[in-house]
Design a protein that fits this description.
binds molybdenum atom; binds the ligand Nc1nc2c(c(=O)[nH]1)N[C@H]1C(S)=C(S)[C@@H](COP(=O)(O)O)O[C@H]1N2; 5-stranded mixed beta sheet; Sulfite Oxidase, Chain A, domain 2; globular; about 20% helix; about 350 residues; alpha+beta; about 20% strand
């Protein structure tokens, strides 16, 4: 994010908008779907609808099944669909699967938006374990099986607002982070929670790169009340399917009222602390990236105004600029956590 780049997607990379279902648009989009039926990706969505799949959106099977499915794919047959109303749903058009999985920030795999999808072929999300440490009654190394077993998966459609001033609307699959935290029984000293991403030089070319600017591992953190907020999601999938590596497989954080960089990917360590943790972007450039990183149209980044955003995908005919909202539009759910805090200083 320290590097200025034209971030526009080439028109040739834009897929016709036929691979998702959105209840409000489904009827209206009927004719478009028929038109798009020639596109392989459209067919599984229609099939799912006919099979009584109540999810709002499914990934096209042709795109998501390139690698063998991990064992936890079986959990994806039983997902609670997103409701029809906010905050776990937005009436906005979903960003197509293709863009969600090919326009990524995941510096471990390289700094270009296309690097994570191109360079993550050797990544293995299975076996996976997560170290739980610090101020908890039940620290230890937990296998992914153990972490996922008690969790019921649900679909949540959230806006994702990157500090680079682009945004998407993504149908995530996951479970509330709070449900996971409770299992480890945090002590009264647990005031913050810290997360770390996998570091593997062999499979992550961004880590080997001489141009890497990050001091690995990528780290993020939340205040405990933010971590326990019902909006905070531990995501294990998107578009009704397991996460591809470029989106943070097998498990990544989603904090929809904060800039995207808080939503750390491929988590291998969760540490409960009494003091505020170090976080990657804040360490790199504290005057540009705050610890809170709450989306705020009144507090600008030196290189990106934050009062507008570009909703992806853009096309030649539709630039899709829109106003950015305080807390990314989730103020009703989160503003009370910041009462009395000067948001311009604590950005
Ligand atoms: N480990 C790790 N997590 C990360 C990043 C990263 O470079 N490394 N980039 C962040 C940024 S800047 C954004 S905008 C989101 C992008 O998530 P997506 O690619 O799934 O849309 O991931 C965040 N999580
Ligand atoms: Mo970002």
């Amino acid at each position: 994010m320290l590097i200025k780049k034209p971030a526009d997607i080439k028109p040739s990379e834009i897929t016709p908008e036929v691979v998702y279902r959105n209840r409000r648009e489904f009827m209206a989009a009927g004719s478009r779907l028929m038109l798009g039926a020639a596109v392989a990706g459209a067919l599984p969505s229609i099939a799912n609808a006919q099979n009584g799949d109540r999810l709002k959106a499914r990934a096209p099977a042709t795109m998501s099944r390139s690698a063998p499915a991990p064992w936890w794919a079986e959990k994806f047959s039983d997902i609670k669909p997103a409701p029809d109303s906010a905050p776990f749903y937005t009436g906005e058009t979903l960003t197509p699967y293709r863009d969600v999985t090919r326009y990524n920030n995941f510096y471990e795999f390289g700094m270009d938006k296309s690097d994570p999808s191109s360079n993550s072929g050797k990544f293995k999300a299975d076996p996976w374990s997560v170290e739980i440490s610090g101020e908890v009654a039940k620290p230890g190394t937990y296998h992914l099986e153990d972490i996922l077993k008690p969790q019921a998966l649900e679909e949540r459609i959230y806006r994702l607002r990157c500090v680079e001033a682009w945004s998407m609307v993504i149908p995530w699959i996951g479970f509330p982070l709070a449900n996971l935290i409770k299992r480890f029984e945090p002590t009264s000293k647990a005031k913050y929670i810290e997360f770390e991403t996998l570091v593997d030089r062999d499979i992550m070319p961004g880590i080997r790169s001489r141009f890497a600017i990050v001091d690995w591992p990528y780290r993020e953190g939340l205040r405990m009340d933010e971590a326990m907020n019902p909006l905070t999601l531990m995501a294990v999938g998107l578009y009704g399917n397991y996460l591809p590596p470029q989106n943070g497989a097998p498990m990544r954080l989603i904090v929809p009222w904060k800039y995207g960089f808080k939503s750390i990917k491929s988590i291998i360590r969760i540490n409960f602390r009494e003091t505020k943790p170090h976080t990657t972007w804040n360490d790199l450039q504290a005057n540009e990236y705050g610890f809170y990183a709450n989306v705020n149209p009144a507090v600008h980044h030196p290189r990106w105004r934050q009062d507008k955003e570009r909703r992806l995908p853009q096309t030649l005919f539709s630039r899709q600029y829109m106003d950015t909202r305080l807390f990314n539009g989730y103020g009703d759910q989160v503003a009370s956590m910041y009462e009395g805090l000067d948001l311009a200083r604590n950005f």
